[in-house]
Amino acid sequence: MEKDKVVVALGRSAFGNTLPEQKKKVSLAAKAIADLVAENYEVIITHSNGPQVGMIQTALTEFSRIDPEFTAAPMSVCSAMSQGYIGYDLQNAIRTELLNRGIFKPVSTIITQVKVDPFDPAFDAPTKVIGRFMTKNEAEIEEHKGNYVVYEESNAGKGYRRIIASPYPIDIYEIDAVKALVDAGQIVIAAGGGGIPVLEQGTVLKGASAIIEKDYTAAKLADMLNASTLLFLTSAQKLSIEDESGAKKELGLLSSSDAAELVDKGYFNKTTTLPKVQSALNFVQAGEGRRAVITSLENAKDGMHERTGTIIC
């Protein structure tokens, strides 16, 4: 009998902001994953890579300034590094948690490339902020290179920062490898950070200066694997909106038509909640008998049993 496939999308709250924080937090994520494995689900994991990819990009850029013999790493390389780094911590934490429960199940991380369209409008309207704050002079140099910059003020500081495109995922090149490992009984970590965005040029895959929205890639991965559930694990137990009176309303079970109506009416934050809901709809509406669950890491098991969380079906 074929097991139900669950694609688990871990948000940035599962990793923290520093190396020690990540080491500690992945153990909590591992417990949630192990709970699903213990219930006999086939589990495939994808994850955020913010702020890790920004840390890597900033570090390598600064290194190139200190030693001009070394060039700054392109975003595609930084994305690959973040997949390896997060996958390393996550797969070891999951392995340990499973063995402590008497379960032997291999865990593998796949460096995953995702096809994007070179003519995607996102390349003309970048939205993803990346890297450290720059001076006006440094920002002008970046613009001279053809890069986009924006002025930003926040609690972290103020100045100019680079912004890059967030194109839509079209295809996942390593999907056959993911399927083979899942069929072999392994837990697979794939398409971290939305995957490495690449442009297809003949037989060559060229890294794009972009960051793909991780939620859209999670839905693409779940669809290509024909998963039954797409489980978003974030910081909130349920999604919430403000109704016409300004009162906060938590969202539980929603039909896809009800969720689509809330999207059309603009109830969701464009940079945080909206991509999750749109991704959930993309996944659910692309096949029969599918559902998307959005809940917190601590409530993953209860969310799968629909005892909590926002469920779209």
Automatic annotation (TrEMBL):
One Gene Ontology cellular component: cytosol
Pathway(s) this gene product operates in, as recorded in its UniProt entry: Metabolic intermediate metabolism; carbamoyl phosphate degradation; CO(2) and NH(3) from carbamoyl phosphate: step 1/1
A single MF term (Gene Ontology): carbamate kinase activity
Catalytic activity: hydrogencarbonate + NH4(+) + ATP = carbamoyl phosphate + ADP + H2O + H(+)
Pfam families reported in the protein's UniProt record: AA_kinase
Family in the record: Belongs to the carbamate kinase family.
Name the UniProt record assigns to this protein: Carbamate kinase
Originating species: Parasporobacterium paucivorans DSM 15970
